[in-house]
Design a protein that fits this description.
This protein is α/β, with parallel strands linked by helices. The protein has a single domain, classed as 4-Layer Sandwich (Purple Acid Phosphatase, chain A, domain 2), CATH 3.60.21. The strands form two sheets. Strands 1, 2, 3, 4, 11, 12 and 13 form a seven-stranded mixed sheet that branches. Strand 12 and strand 13 form a beta hairpin. The longest helix has 15 residues. The chain is globular and about 50 Å long. The two termini are 34 Å apart.
């Protein structure tokens, strides 16, 4: 399908969490057969560096793995070197509804098979830090993109509440999609690290409430059970630590679009043995990124 000139295959990974998530995604991408390779790969990376934020080192490492665009969320600022490189990180999109003047960009346009694809990242506001309204900011941005001739928009809505994700997606399709032409081709929910089973094509738009996460399988959404148990059962402060188990889960979605609408959405939900990647890495890249 990736070689079909009339369609575009998009691969989206849910929140990459820690080294286990990074290595699992790299191993997955490396082993996709040539005939099945996607045309455009997006990954949410707000938890990619030890579960909180993204270092420049990890950004550069993931950039050469086959990922074309990185979306993020409320943890994108957790590693302080983000302020030093976000303005020059061509693939990285931060939430668009931070105040004017915030470093980085909340929307970027990518050229894919002679088509312009805009990727917008935005944060929800229910049970999340108070920010500008995504309803207003995203609507304004989409209207601007329409004037610029963009015909394909992908949204990563990083939000806690299921109802907010569903309502926002329906609002956008009613505002910008028709049966004949869907401007919003994909709407992916992220943040909870728990994949939902409600993938669908809605009014020409591929939708899932939460794409899930990529990280340690034997964990509490990527974190060690013991530290999570102590914090959740006692209410006392406890530093979360990434689970170090070698078996990782890969969550995401694969979407096929054409010039007018989304044609297909398929969930990805599998486990992968990171020890295979790590044994290869010791031979091919001794002392490499961890």
């Amino acid at each position: 399908m990736g070689n079909n000139t009339d369609t575009i295959k998009i691969l989206f990974f849910g929140d990459i969490t820690g080294r286990q998530g990074r290595n699992a995604v790299k191993l997955y991408l490396k082993n996709i057969p040539g005939s099945e390779k996607p045309d455009f790969v997006i990954a949410n990376i707000e938890n990619a560096s030890h579960g909180f934020g993204l270092t420049k080192k990890n950004y550069e490492d993931l950039s050469i793995s086959g990922i074309d665009c990185f979306t993020s969320g409320n943890h994108i600022w957790d590693k302080k070197d983000i302020y030093e490189y976000i303005d020059t990180a061509e693939k990285l999109v931060r939430p668009i509804n931070y105040p004017e003047g915030t470093k980085g960009l909340g929307c970027k346009i990518f050229a894919v098979k002679n088509e312009k694809i805009a990727v917008i990242n935005t944060l929800g506001r229910v049970f999340m830090p108070p920010l500008d309204s995504p309803w207003t900011v995203v609507t304004e941005k989409i209207n601007q993109l329409k004037k610029e001739g963009v015909k394909h928009i992908i949204i990563d809505f990083h939000a806690e509440a299921t109802a907010e994700k569903i309502c926002f997606s329906k609002y956008l399709t009613k505002e910008f999609n028709t049966e004949e032409n869907a401007l919003i081709k994909c709407f992916f929910g992220t943040h909870t690290h728990v994949q939902t089973a409600d993938e669908k094509i809605y009014n020409g738009m591929a939708y899932i409430t939460d794409a899930g996460f990529c990280g340690a399988e034997d964990s509490v959404i990527g974190m060690e059970f013991a530290t999570s148990l102590k914090r959740l059962s006692t209410g006392l402060p406890e530093r979360y630590e990434i689970s170090e188990t070698p078996i990782a889960q890969i969550n995401g979605v694969e979407v096929i679009i054409d010039k007018t609408k989304a044609l297909q959405i398929k969930r990805i939900n599998l486990t992968i043995d990171n020890s295979k990647y790590e044994s290869e890495d010791k031979v091919n890249n001794p002392g490499g990124v961890v």
